[in-house]
Design goal:
About 5% of the residues lie in helices and about 30% in strands. The chain is mostly beta strands. Strand 6 (about 80-85) and strand 7 (about 90-95) form a beta hairpin.
Length: about 140
């Protein structure tokens, strides 16, 4: 059964639209988890690869795997850019910019209304208390 996408997600994912900068619910989002494609559920990015780029969209410096996203040349709007698509369903996710943080290469500016964030599942433990440091990766 095909999934019907909400209108705003369809506009970005299938029509290669763009949401306005600084309007995404994930722009200043700090919670730990994994960002997934809203259309097909493909894992895209871990929250620990997200950083503040100042571009107005959530930005990541590394996908979750080499196959989780696809890079394609985009010659639209009178410029040449690198588009990022979902590796499974080829939905538009955003664009790569080569002004990322030092030593980490490119920025992937994600159209975040097109993604969902799932928090990691809590693991059961034999101990009753955990320190803050034991929860860090």
């Amino acid at each position: 059964m095909a999934k019907v996408l909400p209108e705003d997600v369809y506009y970005i994912a299938r029509q290669k639209g763009t949401e306005r900068p600084w309007t995404s619910k994930y722009e200043n989002f700090k919670e730990v988890g994994t960002y997934y494609c809203a259309a097909c559920g493909n894992p895209l990015f871990k929250s620990d690869t997200k950083f503040e780029s100042g571009c107005g969209w959530p930005s990541f410096y590394e996908p979750i795997s080499k196959t989780s996203i696809i890079y394609k040349e985009d010659k639209s709007h009178g410029m040449v850019r690198t588009e990022v698509e979902c590796g499974r369903c080829e939905a538009h996710l955003g664009h790569v910019f080569d002004d990322g943080p030092p030593l980490q290469g490119c920025v992937i500016a994600l159209m975040a209304s097109y993604s969902t964030l799932r928090k990691p599942k809590k693991q059961k433990s034999n101990t009753t208390t955990k320190t803050k440091n034991s929860l860090k990766r």
